[in-house]
Structures are given as structure tokens and as C-alpha cells.
């Protein structure tokens, strides 16, 4: 689908170049694969998939080629096993998607990077350990896809399961903030990767809360519209216990007052 905009010829050329890149490096033929970082422009990141797909590139496909957007989300569903393994290995429950994802969905971020020219030691890559907002990014993306396409079959077959299990991860991931008498999310890397080991990153906290609220909302929707499917998912994901944890914690998670900070 062509996207036409007003303005200079250069602006239209830039849009078409971006569309061209998105079309040539997206694996439209096979939902076992996601979009590799760097596309076809280089070998960096070894073709692994990041949050860039869901947050930056998926919206283009949702509006222009929804069948491709669905395929990219199917990739995340097919790698739920790896996400659940990562959560379990880290002492959590539910599904924790990896920062770098490949075929199996297990974490493939390297532990060590290049040698620091000052210290002479390899630099530890913390993203695979604590850059965790990828999990709520994926839930946000599938919700956005559903809002725009109305693809109920996708939600029934895949979407609800991802949404519920990621919400369960976040509630198990929360840290108790004794000084605030509420829950928080400590020791993370937010979208700004230059700041590591941050407590209560605004983006991460807000997106995690939204993830949990979506799970609560759609659990209630399924109670009314499709109790049979809800019962099936409940048996698989232990949703009675999980939902209670969502409800107990979601309204007591620390969120920055962003409006105040902007003023």
C-alpha cells in the first residue's frame, strides 16, 4: 500500500524509502521468524528480534498489511515457551520475553561485549538481564493490533494467552518499596539504554501497569462473552490465582507524576 504525503518531494522519497526497507527485511513468508535488528543493512545483532518490531514497525503493518502484523505477533506466540522458561529461570511466573529473541524465544543476548579500552576488560551486557520492558511492549502491540483490526480469532487463539501470562509475570516481578509502602520495579534498564540499574523507570512502570489492567479488563470481558474459552485458559495459566494477584497489586504500583515533571 502506498503512503502519500504532502510537502516536498524529498519527504515523499523518504517515506517510500522507509516503506521499501520495511518490506524487504520483514519475513512475511513465515511466522516462525521476527524482524531482525538492522534488517538487511548489516550483521549486527545476528538477526535477533527486539522491541523495535512491536513498538516502531508493527504499527506500519497494522495499517497497511494487517496480515503481516498478525504473522509478526504469531511469532511471539510461538516463542511463549522460551518466555516462560526465562521467567522461571529468573524466579518469576508467567511469561518474560527475552530482550533478544531468535527461533526458540529463549534469551540470546550475549553476556559479554567488547573490551573496554580503558580497563582492558570485557563489558557486561546487562540488557538480557534487566531490560524487561519488552514484555509489556508486546502486550501493548497485540492490543493495538486488536483495536484496529478487530481480529477476534487472533485474540481467542493467541492474544489473550500472551496478555494474561505477561500480566502474571509483572505482578510476580514487583518489588516491595518499604519507604513508599507500595510496589515498584527495581533494577531495570529503560528505553534509554545509557542508564542501567534504574529503579522505577517511568516507561517500564506505566507500561507494566497498563499490561496488568488490560489483563483484568479482558478477563472480565471473557467472563461475559466467552466463559468456555476463559475456563480453558484458566486451567492452563492458573488464572484464578493470577487474577487475584493482578487485582491485589495493580492499584498500588508506583507511577511517576509525569505531568508535574513536565511543568
Description:
There is one protein chain. The chain has eleven helices and four strands; from the N terminus they run ααααββαααββαααα. The protein has 263 residues and is mainly α. The protein has a single domain, classed as Glycosyltransferase, CATH 1.50.10. It has a two-stranded antiparallel sheet with strand order 1-2. A two-stranded antiparallel sheet has the order 3-4. It is globular. The mean pLDDT is 94.
> The CATH topology, please?
Glycosyltransferase
The count of strands amounts to 4
Largest beta sheet: strand ordering: 1-2
Instruction: Return Rg in Å.
Output: 19 Å
Q: Which geometry do the CA atoms define? A: globular
In CATH's first tier, which class applies?
A: Mainly Alpha
Strand content: under 5%
Low-confidence stretches: none
- Terminal CA distance reads 41 Å
Q: Tell me the domain tally.
A: 1
Question: What topology does this entry show?
Answer:
Layout: H1 9-25, H2 52-64, H3 66-78, H4 80-89, E1 112-115, E2 122-124, H5 127-130, H6 134-149, H7 152-173, E3 175-177, E4 182-184, H8 202-225, H9 227-237, H10 239-249, H11 258-262
Antiparallel strand pairs: 1-2, 3-4
Helix pairs in contact: 2-3, 2-6, 3-6, 3-7, 6-7, 6-8, 7-8, 7-10
Amino acid at each position: 500500500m502506498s503512503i502519500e504525503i504532502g510537502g516536498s518531494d524529498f519527504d515523499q522519497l523518504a517515506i517510500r524509502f522507509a516503506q521499501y526497507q520495511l518490506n524487504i527485511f520483514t519475513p512475511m513468508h513465515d511466522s516462525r521468524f521476527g524482524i531482525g535488528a538492522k534488517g538487511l543493512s548489516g550483521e549486527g545483532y545476528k538477526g535477533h528480534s527486539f522491541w523495535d518490531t512491536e513498538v516502531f514497525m508493527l504499527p506500519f503493518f497494522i495499517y497497511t498489511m494487517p496480515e503481516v502484523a498478525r504473522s509478526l505477533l504469531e511469532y511471539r506466540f510461538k516463542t511463549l515457551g522460551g518466555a516462560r522458561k526465562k521467567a522461571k529461570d529468573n524466579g518469576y511466573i508467567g511469561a518474560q520475553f527475552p530482550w533478544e529473541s531468535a527461533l526458540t524465544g529463549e534469551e540470546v543476548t550475549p553476556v559479554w561485549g567488547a573490551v573496554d579500552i580503558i580497563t582492558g576488560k570485557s563489558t557486561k551486557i546487562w540488557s538480557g538481564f534487566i531490560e524487561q520492558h519488552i514484555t509489556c511492549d508486546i502486550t501493548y502491540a497485540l492490543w493495538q493490533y486488536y483495536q484496529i483490526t478487530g481480529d477476534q480469532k487472533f485474540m481467542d487463539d493467541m492474544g489473550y494467552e500472551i496478555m494474561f501470562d505477561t500480566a502474571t509475570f509483572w505482578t510476580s516481578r514487583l518489588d516491595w518499596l518499604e519507604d513508599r509502602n507500595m510496589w515498584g520495579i527495581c533494577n531495570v534498564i529503560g528505553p534509554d539504554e545509557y542508564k542501567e540499574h534504574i529503579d522505577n523507570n517511568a516507561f517500564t512502570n506505566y507500561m507494566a501497569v497498563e499490561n496488568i489492567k488490560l489483563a483484568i479488563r479482558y478477563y472480565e470481558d471473557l467472563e461475559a462473552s466467552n466463559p468456555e474459552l476463559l475456563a480453558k485458559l484458566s486451567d492452563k495459566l492458573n488464572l484464578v490465582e493470577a487474577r487475584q494477584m493482578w487485582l491485589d497489586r495493580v492499584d498500588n504500583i508506583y507511577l511517576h507524576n509525569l505531568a508535574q515533571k513536565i511543568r
